[in-house]
Amino acid sequence: MLADTFAAITARYIAVGAPTDGIWVNVDDILRDRGLTPIIIAGWLTILVDRGRGAMRAEEAAALYTLLAERDVRVWVDGGWGVDALLGEQTRPHKDFDALAPLEDLGALAAVLDERGFTLKELWGENRWVAHPARLPLIGGEEGGGSAVATAFVVRDDAGRELDLHALTLDGRGAGIPAWRSQMVYPPAAFAGRGVIAGTPVRCLSARMQMATHTGYPLQAKDLQDLRLLHERFGVAYLPEQARRVADRA
Hints:
Elements: H1 2-16, H2 27-33, H3 38-52, H4 58-70, E1 76-78, H5 79-87, E2 96-102, H6 106-115, E3 119-123, E4 130-131, E5 140-143, E6 146-149, E7 152-156, E8 162-170, E9 176-178, E10 193-197, E11 200-204, H7 207-213, H8 221-234, H9 240-249
Parallel strand pairs: 2-8
Antiparallel strand pairs: 1-2, 3-7, 4-6, 5-6, 7-8, 8-9, 10-11
Helix pairs in contact: 1-8, 5-8, 7-8, 8-9
C-alpha cells in the first residue's frame, strides 16, 4: 500500500514540476483516499518538501552527464537516476546524481566541476585517499607526504544540486575494482547498462548490478520501490535480504 501511495505522490510531484510551486496540489487528497492518518500525511508532505529543495531534475542530470562526456570523463549512472535511466522514465524525485567514474578520469572531472562552481560537500566514510601526480581542486589532498585524490565524495553547486561520485579502476578484463574501501567487484557486464534521461542516452549500471548494490544498508521506501521496478521490468531476482524487506512492506 505504501509503495503505491509513494508512486501516486511521485507522479503528482513530477507533474507539478517546481520544488515549491504547486507541490501541495491534490497530495492531501491522494493520501486521504488511501486511508492514511494525519500524522503519516504530515510525514509524507515533509518528505516532499525536503526532496524539492535542491532536487536534481531530469534535464539537469542529463546536462551534467553530457558536460562530463564532452570533456572525456567516463561515468556510469548509479542510484535512483541509474534505475530511472534503465526504465526510460522518471519514477520519483532525486536529490542528487549518483555516478561511478574511472580513477584516471578524476583530473578532468575535478577541472570541470571547479569551473562550474561546485564545492566539496562531504567525503564518505568509505573514502580512501589514493596517490595522484598533481593536487586537484575540490577533491585533492595529501597522503603520505604526497598529492592524493578522494575516491568517494559528494560535491554541490550553488543551486544545491549534488553529484555523489565513487571512483574505481578497470582491470584488463573490464571489471571494476573500487578505489574506495569496498570488497565489491563490478564484473564487466555491470557496465553494459544503457538508458535514457530526458531524451539523452546515458551509460549506467546494469539492472542486475543495480540490484546487487542495494545491500548492506537500511533500505528506505524509495529504495524498495527501485528494487520492485527492477524486478518487475527486468526480471532480476531479489537477494534474500531484499525479498524479506519487500515482503514486510507489502
